Input
Amino acid sequence: MEFTTDIFKQFDKKWALLTAGNKDSFNTMTISWGGLGTIWNKPVATVYVRTSRYTHDFMDREEYFTISFYPEDAKQVLGVLGSKSGRDMDKMKDSGLTPKELAQSMSFEEAEITLVCRKLFRQQLSIENIPEDIADSLYSNDAPHDMYIGEVVDVIRK
Ligand SMILES: Cc1cc2nc3c(=O)[nH]c(=O)nc-3n(C[C@H](O)[C@H](O)[C@H](O)COP(=O)(O)O)c2cc1C
Output
């Protein structure tokens, strides 16, 4: 299992899709906050999901989630999946992406790389522990983020 990247660009500039569920019921959304690292002697990915996202329901329900990265020409699709909710639209029908069933979760055929993650931990980021300038700009009118840490159990390449 190997994944070499410039981690400060991988999420922030490339963006990714965070997906949870199975072929009969799943949801996906665009993310640009995240990290890769190590905890509890395991390779992990960390993502941050506002509690208001439809994807949040799936993240809570499921034991696995995937983080998938795409070529530059998918940026427009990622923009749509990051601005419309699966509660209000059939994301799959309208996105043009092709769902791909994995042993434990879902990804998309178009993904260059998919990280398959086993959920290890979830905790809400307490507003009182966040510097005031950040709390004011990001949380005064919007739901808090839950942090999810997942063990990276597989790296799937196209
Ligand atoms: C570039 C980009 C990055 C985003 N990153 C995040 C993120 O890291 N965490 C988050 O909660 N929402 C993030 N969003 C917002 C969600 O993708 C967006 O609210 C989406 O419509 C949620 O869909 P859902 O309700 O179907 O889950 C991002 C949106 C964009 C366009």
